[in-house]
User: Fold these one by one.
Assistant:
Number 1:
Amino acid sequence: MNFYQTVEGINKISFGDMIPTETILQKRFVKTDSFMVPGVIQKSEKRFTWKLDLNDDDVIYGLGQNVRGMNKRGFVYESFCSDDPNHTPDKKSLYGAHNFFVVLSDKPWGIYIDFAGKVTFDIGFEHKDVLKIEVEGIDFDAYVFTGTYKQIVNQFRSLIGQSYVPPKWGFGYQQSRWSYVDQEEVLSIADKFDEHDLPCDAIYLDIDYMERFKDFTVSEERFPAFQSFVTDMKSREIKLIPIIDAGVKIESGYDVYEEGVKNDYFCNDASGHPFVAAVWPGKVHFPDFFNSQVRKWFGQKYHHLLNMGIEGFWNDMNEPAIFYSEQGLKDAISFVNSQAGKNLDIYTFFDLKDKILNISNSEVDYKSMYHNYDGVKVNHYDVHNLFGYFMTRAAAEGFEDYAPDKRHFMITRASHIGMAKHSGIWTGDNHSWWEHLKLNIQMMPGLGMAGFLYSGADTGGFGGEASGELLTRWLQFSIFTPLLRNHSALGTRKQEPWMFETETLDRIRDVVKMRYALIPYLYSEFMKANFNHELLFAPLSYEYDDLRSKQVEDQLLLGDSLMLAPVYEQNSRGRSVYLPEKMVLWKVTAFEHLNEEAFELMEEGYHFVDVALNEIPLYLKPGKLVVLTKPENRVSNLDESNLVVVGYVPNKAIYELYNDDGLTKGYKSGDSLKTMLKVDRHKNEYQISVDTNDMALKSITFYLIDDNGKWHVIKQNAIMDESHYV
Ligand code: GLC
């Protein structure tokens, strides 16, 4: 074991010589004397087991994308990127591998396990007072953090670096479906958004836009003039976002396949031949993204679509998903054949059934595939969790080569900590189940802890059938998630807003418009969470240290000023809410309906709050402000020079509004617009000051609620001067 430390006191323990994961900015660590490692560590030939004590009241947050509640205590979780469309509570892993958690104890602590293979976390399951980490390998690094919950998140996130920032249009509403099959259909979807006065900034192209599911091709039959189509859509301010899958179709004459074979760019089997799997295109090879030359080659392939005007992508099936491997299928068929005509006993029958049912994503297949990790041969199973990360890294590096200062849109399915600097994520193939709306709510803080600030779920649910009520309630939550995408699977009920009754469509219009109204606040909080290594979505105990806050599982803090308590149950017209302090409830129906009656002062403690189907309940924290603007149907049309501020201000409030050009990476070198809003209440009068370097800012209308629940409307017509901004 080797011991390291940063000046901030973050401890790192190196167990052996780990395979690099590219997650931590190593340079900040210096070697130090050994220190006390918490808990008990046992090493066997092939694995490490680390046991740590838990106290009765400890609450555990983290593990990013996984099943179950915000407090992870009481179950066993795995980090092993999995292509599994049934996110039921008995599952142990989803698409991401996020080995970071925080234990909220009297003296909070946190651990990150930096390891590319499978890790299991038994969090008080086998024994209620023991947290057991099992690492399937003996070479890994562990980081141990102490401080408050907020400080630990801050330390960890500062180690993994700044997160991916999408272009600002990525904060708009996005419509997807597997699939809008041709140009006419995509066009008619765009037209419907405009006809129905619904905001929309992007439409996704799922696998059917390609020619026989071949990456970087476009079907000439279904999209005969792709480039001009992309341009036409862009002139309407609608971006098209094509999918790219991990598997490359085996087809002679197909350039990506031919080049890959010629240059030995694909993952191999044990005998050194390209590994054969099957995904959407039928038989495929997987590019070996562990090899930097391959990443460079694959990254350049995106240029073909970028040249046609495309500005963003979604990378999919990159766990990697394997429907079957050539060998796996052969073995299963020969087993089935060997049983033909026999009088099967029940156990052999179950074996036979399992052989077929377990053919996809099998451990045997993952163990039969090899990478050339920049010269070193590694078995896929040992580095499984990095595959999707490195595919997306290839894309991000390709974008960087193409236009270094431009922000490209990128979301991906499989992920690992460290990937957050390259891309956002969507949370994969959920269902149109109310339970998955709740899972979406509960997963957001963990994703942020792992650095995935730009994230969101398939709103309305991917599999299964969504009702109008489910879609409405889901949107009432998703309008706060940075990625806001409605996506649904082939064969399910169509989920575009106009597929429901007029009443539902009208409600959805108000909800989505409210998203656009909130963009000044959401974008500002997103960027600040990124710069300051903070959470955008947080459990209440991120800010409040009372015991009750620790128990709340279905409310979230959103940035500095808001608390959310979404409705996530069928037919519910209200819910219980815990307020850790006095707040103002704002029942939003539509941006235009901003009136005094919509606000209600609420005391600290428990409440039952009625929430009609057209209401979005927002809780305003005291002394904080929310900045909005009049909604438009595209992000680029938002008027950010005339703003609206809403706040509950008993005495004083300060808010720094962040903005920038939304398109370039200038934000990295401080190219930004900042506006400092200060409100003071003196002798029943509000005094307001606005300092800004945003020369375009013209007016701000303040709606301030005082401690008697009375509101005050003050319009500030300011001429602002750069020199005022400090
Ligand atoms: C995967 C993706 C899903 C997509 C489908 C077809 O299941 O997770 O979003 O629609 O593949 O490409």
Note: The longest strand covers residues 673-682.
Number 2:
Amino acid sequence: MTEAQNEPSVTIEALMDEQRVFPPSKEFVAQANINAASVYEDGKDYETFWENQADSLLWRKKWTKTLDWSNPPFAKWFVDGKLNVTESCLDRHLENNGDKVAYYFVGEPGDERTVTYRQLYEEVCQLANGLASLGVSKGDRVAIYMGMTVELPVALLACARLGAPHSVVFGGFSSDALMDRINDAEAKVLITCDESWRNGNKIALKSYADSALEKTPSIEHVVVVKRTGTAVPMIQGRDIYYHELIKDQPKERPATETDSEDTLFILYTSGTTGKPKGIVHTTGGYLLGASFTHKNVFDIKDDDVYWCTADIGWVTGHSYIVYGPLANGTTSVLYEGVPNYPDKDRYWAIIEKYKVNQLYTAPTSIRTFMKWGTEFPERHDMSSLRLIGTVGEPINPEAWIWYNKYIGGGRAPIVDTWWQTETGHIMISPLPGVTTTKPGSATVPLPGIGADIVDEEGNPVPWGGGGYLVLTHPWPGMLRTIFKDPQRFVDTYWGRFSKPEENRWVYFAGDGAKRDVDGYYWLLGRVDDVMNVSGHRISTLEVESALVDHQDVAEAAVVGRNDPITGQAIAAFVTLKGHVQGNEQLIAELREHVAAKIGKIARPASIVFTDELPKTRSGKIMRRLLRDISEQRQLGDVTTLANADVVNDIAARAAAMQTSQED
Ligand code: WTA
């Protein structure tokens, strides 16, 4: 961590001065699922705490030991317990709640589909039977690359029914990114769709998949959901349409028994190297963590309509659209598209129509809504909203207050939830019936979760100070390893602050944070080479490799600079090969090149050409300096640079040259 990307900055100091507090209302407390502060006391004995919650799941065979932490940092929760997550998410609701709605699907073009728990169960069984007929069995990996339609949660659950780990690849990723992930997971089957709808456009997922599949030897079959109906090439013997695959399949299929520690899914996320990591989540502990936090952080009641706007391609969708809500028998909205199609009030229209009670969305969206103006939410009656939440990045107090006022009607508590792909479920967040909130703070660790702030040496920093956010003991939904790379798991997450000789194991989250004098956590962003663009993690190295992959590029450095809407924006500095002249056209070409290599979310917002990159005498690129340049800050001492004179030149060029990032 020599090249800190996000050090505490001035805005954070301002944030820490935030004095407003929002205690839960009497009315909310009276009806809350959890309303006694004593729950935090209960959580201190975390093993017992989680064990006491675990009866909320349907187990086939009870565990013999709650936590096995004898081989840290490799944890086992609910040792010897047997279950299949789909029995908790589907089967057990059938008897009393078979006709209850699981998903109100809202297609971007305006089509709708209501799916009850029984219908969901039947379609999951049919697809599980279909996948089994293609040779998928327990332990086989299945890759999923789809838009947000009902068939997407069905696909995840059908894999889970078979005990086949799924690896969902976000539909916004490119062919190359899909190919890398399929190959790393050695997936046997890919489930995709013809095209998906986004912002009124058709996104050609099958065609992207076909390019990826030219170099994915492990894939035997491709299942294709018809979404837009556009004819797509189908390769005989390999490709089959979803509706044809499930057509004659029985609507029942016994769930495959899995162990509490069998892998439920792999989800790739960016780290500090160019290669994405396959985060491995297992079964019992993960489902418990996702369902407990879903129920209690969002204060879910049986009749609620809940809506998480994330894409299932990210962990938020896994835990809070699929597994958490379904385990709790909740009715969710599942929306396919963007918030401004056909107009900027789409979210608010959906909330009014379905009388949504809980909304869970991202700060970047909230800032976008602020920019669009209050007229859009004001068009709709959103009095059904009882609670609103955020995830993905720090929320600035201004956006928090706007969200509270214009979306929550000044009435709905806000839960700012901090967690990660690796943690599996929410870790730091208010309990809405207990915790007084402060705009901009994720508040305190949930009961049963241990967090701390430490300094460079790993010593706890007293309240009032800042440092590195760490997690101090195991939790049920924790990642178990990195797929095929346990050593990287140990080094990346446990290497920095653990003291194995004292048997002290500390998970380092990669985030900086401060803790105020009341013990509230204020997240400061990543302290490694990971950017957070619109709540999505992108590694600087990944973007750099994509740029260098272009024939005209000699060298590239990428930093995340602050952006009022997307949190961070990607700023790239590129040196070209000797004979090449940089111009607008090449900038456009490079941005598209990155989009093709990784996905549009990774396209740099600005590219500056420079004859040299600022480097230390040992040859390291000074990213911190580039960030200062990008944010037009006064430049500090540059005397350690090997090529100090290059800095002014870059700064001048950067000021002159900025392109804006499209969606
Ligand atoms: C950031 C998303 C501040 C953080 C669930 C973390 C947040 C990374 C918050 C994980 C929050 C997430 N406040 N920062 N409430 N929630 N983050 O893996 O930097 O996509 O490390 O998981 O997002 O992103 P990931």
Note: DSSP finds 21 helices and 30 strands in the chain.
Number 3:
Amino acid sequence: MHLGIVILAAGQGTRMKSSLPKVLHPLAGRPLLGHVLETAAALAPTRTVVVYGHGGERVPASFAQRDGVLWVEQTPQLGTGHAVQQAIPHLGGCDRVLVLYGDVPLVEAGTLQGLLGRPEPVALLSVRLADPTGYGRVVRDGASRVRRIVEQKDATDEERAVEEVNTGIMVLDATRLSGWLGRLSNANAQGEYYLTDVIAMAVGDGLPVEAVAAPDPLEVAGVNDRAQLAQLEREWQRRAAERLMRAGVTLADPARFDLRGTLRHGRDVSIDVNVIVEGTVVLGDDVRIGANTTLRDAVIADGAQVLENCVIEDASIGPRSRIGPFSRLRPGTRLLGDAHVGNFVEIKNSEVGPGSKVNHLSYVGDSTVGCDVNVGAGTITCNYDGANKHRTVIGDRAFIGSNTALVAPIAVGEGATVGAGTTLTRDAPAEALTVARAKQATITGWKRPVKKK
Ligand code: UD1
Ligand code: CA
């Protein structure tokens, strides 16, 4: 059996009131269409064709990295039947065609597999809605057999009372579908070529049509405006949080956790409220993440703790380290283990060896810091001369006094001590004290001036 998947994504999305094509709006950090493409790929189809139109080349350009997807432009957009028709020439060799919508992001592969498991030549996914307004209604006969689908605008009052609606997702025999599409007419209330008209054609040909009930209305809900987008975002997040909790992650409040990428985790990970996870994040065993922290493409090893209000991006944190509160780890930060990084500390493109501490109010950039180094409060690596970046190298066991400026390129030797307040412009040798500061003087008997009468 060769499966062809057609994803309809040409529609305008007027109600988004956006210059971004609707299917490119992000849900959980990825475009709506990206979710559908991923679900489609899980079904291992022979062909996947996306019908795009509104928004033009921006849509395929957003998925340029993705292999095995054919992009077909539909201009003008004359209806869902017309859209599927554009894809037909690209479905050679496919026995069955599954139609998906690019703006229905939550549909699950398991549900689609259920639909594909039906023996009938036409099977559609339907759902019962308390308020079916706007949808195509599934019209059944006295024996409860599906006869046709009637669109809201073409329906009689009696048909409008039907609560079972067409989700738009259907699977059809490829050869027959191609014949039916050729016979579609646009003589209806909207002047469009309706894909849904093929249902009555199948029935007319004496073929059985099955309507399979979707497990849950949100799974088959489309995004038409930003309120619906937010509603589906919440639903996606609810499901992601459920999955994580079932897999052994503690979430202080599943409603205040946002996953916008992939999270891999060990055992007994605990995540406090308002944490945002983006990109690819890996958390080892017993990792704790404090409230209001953002993790973006980060690897955090076993037993490490990130306290409240940290922003960590493209960084790795070694085992048993303690970060925050209020730390910012920027791209290229590697903390090797047992590191302490405290409040108002920014680290960028630097490696910090095991057991080293940068506890307060510091900037460490383009640096290599050895093990068991203590970087005092207010230390700044002056890595930028206005044109180029330069490196700072600090040896093992060095002690950098508070309020030191390290003017790079510069090296501090192993076991060196740099006195507080030093502006270091030449290398500090190992195992010695280097200090550069104005000499302190005391003038005894000195009197403050007094105001003249
Ligand atoms: C369609 C169905 C309706 C169903 C509803 C579910 C038809 C005629 N009606 O109605 O039975 O209840 O979906 O949401 O099929 N699209 C194109 N090209 C076009 C027109 C649409 O690619 O020329 C795409 C849209 O981008 C969208 C999907 O097809 O992803 C559905 O289009 P939309 O206009 O939302 O269809 P409805 O009128 O809501
Ligand atoms: Ca719609």
Note: Residues 222, 224 surround calcium ion (ligand 2) (CB under 6 Å).
